[in-house]
Amino acid sequence: MKYLFCLLTPAGMVVLVASIKYIIRFAKTKKIYEMPYTKGQGVFTLAEKGRYGLWFSGKLFTRTPIGKFSLNLINQQTGQSIPLSTSILRTTIKRFSAARMELYSFTAEAGTYVVSVVNKKNSQGRPDKLITAIPSDQIADYSLFSIQVRSYISVLVLFVCVLGCILGCFGILFGIVLPIVL
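The structure corresponding to this sequence follows.
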């Protein structure tokens, strides 16, 4: 019986490695287009139909324009506005000096699109209004920020991967400890 518990170790390693692989894939989603925030408007082309995300990227520990703008996406061929979905849990990816945060996601056909920054307060909820209402002596340098279009990966996938990492670690631990204890 205790030899069956030894199988938890390789099973835990497989789950842990697979989960870490998908977390890395999540962090390195394909960047399709990047536009400086100060440009205000940009044109990009989607090669295939799918779900994509609009990300806000910039330098860490600087004053940001979050809460002072919203984004508008228009199909250039038809002139139709593409509906943007806000995520309940905003995904953020941080590196040492920079970070990015997913603001919106959208589904679109292959084609050319125009993304534009609309300088108005968005309706993201109270936390943004509280954060931007805090007075600061620091002047915002908006040239440090950009808007990115990236392939979309669901936050649910990230949640399952984190859960897989936890279960994989427990599998490895129990696969080592239980045969010794029993």
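Helices lie at 2-5, 8-27, 126-133, 155-181.
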